[in-house]
Design goal:
The chain is of the alpha/beta class and about 525 residues long. Helix content is about 30%, strand content about 20%. The protein contains 14 helices and 20 strands. The strands form four sheets. It has an eight-stranded mixed β-sheet, with helices on both faces.
Length: about 525
């Protein structure tokens, strides 16, 4: 993991492998021109104020995420200057011009990705306050991420092309003795480290991460960070009547688990419950997925990974809120013992569900976990799941959907997601779609109308939320796993989507600003 430090030193005299600066597209009188962003004044001066022109000659446009490298000027102790695009220069207001936190986060991440093999880099990006420090720090730590455990050189902690990720990032403009700046770095480190742990879990092959192995990882982390943990194995699940989790896991040689993580604070006034779908591999079961649709299904536990990471991050930050995280873990496989289409499962809530499609399994494990979480009467409850392909069709590969039984809570979750830089969109729960899940055999079927399938899944989950509990459902099927090239601070593979949203919700709950 890249180490973060703060420094008020001038860029020219800093010993580093590279100096990272920001450039932007000019507005107003400088419209169309490249502009060197605040924080890089000393660097620009060393180029006699002509740095923007030099970069334009090299093809730089200032577009977000664009990276241009050039030799450092004479007298610099760093050999390279890395210019990263920030997009359009913000208009000045009463508080001066400030770049959006997500712009800084993406820029820092894009630059960090290009600094593979570097021991130290100095980031001279615009710093107006502590939030900018935090955003840049987060971007660096997330952008420098690399998953190499299964490569030949993985034992040597090497990354792309046999080189290790950026070892140290110094954030210029950050004051080492400033309490707010130090706190911003500490928060960025805790959140990014746990988000990267979630990425590691998502990227781990399913032959090495079955439900039991996932539970063991959670137990180890809980012990390290003072979190109480309870793991229900097959016998305990059967005794408790968790028919949904048992039904999904019935076809696998690897038994299912339900993991409960409890973080408590002596100063807490609110209780937040988080529930994550943890299908460690999803073949579709008897309703087998066709070729081309199952190669990345190790990522179907991304919701549980997000919940796990968020609870640990909250513990590391010492948030004044009680949080329970529920990881509903199972492997969905076809076999002679697998649940069949047409079978009826009796859920933990007592309701019966006719299984019409065994590939609609996530809602079954979540149903049991939601009901279990509801028994503790939390002030609010949020579930996270790679639940439906329909949500990907609706919102694409970078945006997750938010459904809720309370409009104000749905709006609050949406605002929290946007605040931390996770694209999301509020979705409805149309009542007329509920009728499609009526079953002549059971209380409800696990499938309904094909059109609006993501909303149907949300309506199914709502059936298992305890009365009077405020609840939201995040369908992260699109952004949870990036099959394309890396961008900003987002790598190829597992992304850790929703971790930062959940942490922010926990912070807001602790502050009394969330209901």
């Amino acid at each position: 993991m890249t180490a973060l430090t703060l420094s008020t030193a001038a860029a020219p005299g800093l010993r580093a492998d590279a100096i990272v600066i920001g450039v932007a597209k000019g507005t107003g009188s400088t419209s169309g021109d490249l502009v060197v962003a605040p924080g890089a004044e000393a660097v620009d001066k060393a180029y006699d104020g002509k740095l923007a022109g030099v970069l334009e000659t090299l093809g730089a446009s200032g577009a977000e995420g664009e990276v241009t490298k050039l030799p450092a000027p004479s007298g610099f102790k760093a050999p390279v200057v890395v210019a990263v695009g920030l997009g359009s220069q913000p208009e000045k207001d009463a508080n001066g011009a400030a770049f959006d936190a997500e712009v800084l986060r993406k820029a820092a991440g894009a630059a960090a990705r290009t600094l593979v093999g570097a021991k130290k880099a100095a980031f001279a990006l615009p710093v107006q306050d502590a939030s900018a420090i935090g955003a840049i720090g987060e971007g660096v730590l997330l952008g420098a991420y690399s998953f190499d455990a299964y490569k030949d050189n993985g034992k040597n902690e090497k990354a792309k092309n046999g080189k290790a990720p950026l070892a140290e990032a110094t954030l210029l403009g950050g004051k080492p003795r400033d309490k707010e700046h130090k706190a911003a770095v500490e928060r960025a480190t805790a959140v990014a480290e746990e988000l990267n742990r979630a990425r590691d879990l998502i990227n781990t092959p399913p032959n090495d991460l079955d439900p039991e192995a996932f539970a063991a990882v959670a137990q180890a982390a809980a012990k390290e960070h003072g979190i109480k943990v309870q793991v229900l194995d097959e016998k305990a699940l059967e005794k408790g009547g968790y028919g949904g989790i048992l039904g999904v896991g019935a076809g696998s040689a690897a038994g299912p688990r339900l993991v409960k993580l409890s973080y408590t604070s002596s100063k807490a006034k609110k209780h937040l419950a988080l529930v994550g779908k943890g299908i460690t591999y999803d073949s579709g079961g008897i309703s087998l997925k066709p070729a081309g649709h199952n190669e990345t299904m190790k990522c179907d536990m991304s919701g549980a990974a997000a919940v796990f990471a968020a609870v640990v991050a909250a513990a590391r930050l010492g948030l004044e809120v009680n949080i329970t995280g529920w990881l509903a873990l199972a492997e969905n496989m076809p076999s002679g013992s697998a649940t069949r289409p047409g079978d009826v499962l009796r859920m933990y809530s007592g309701k019966t569900v006719e299984v019409l499609n065994t590939d609609a399994e996530g809602r079954l494990v979540l149903a049991d976990a939601l009901w279990a979480a509801s028994q503790e009467k939390p002030d609010a409850m949020v579930d996270v799941a790679t639940l439906t392909g329909a949500m990907m069709l609706a919102l694409g590969s970078r945006t997750f959907g938010i459904m809720a039984n309370d409009d104000a809570f749905r709006s609050a979750v949406h605002e929290a997601a946007e605040e931390v830089g996770e694209p999301a969109w509020p979705m409805p729960l149309p009542e007329h779609l509920r009728k499609g899940m009526d079953s002549p055999t059971a209380d409800i079927a696990n499938m309904g109308e094909r059109m609006g399938g993501g909303l149907v899944a949300g309506l199914f989950l709502r059936e298992f939320v305890g009365e009077g509990i405020t609840w939201a459902h995040l369908d992260i099927a699109g952004p949870a796993f990036n099959e394309g090239g890396p961008f900003g601070y987002t790598p190829k593979g597992g992304t850790g989507t929703a971790v930062r949203t959940l942490v922010r919700l926990a912070e807001l709950t602790a502050a009394g600003d969330l209901g």
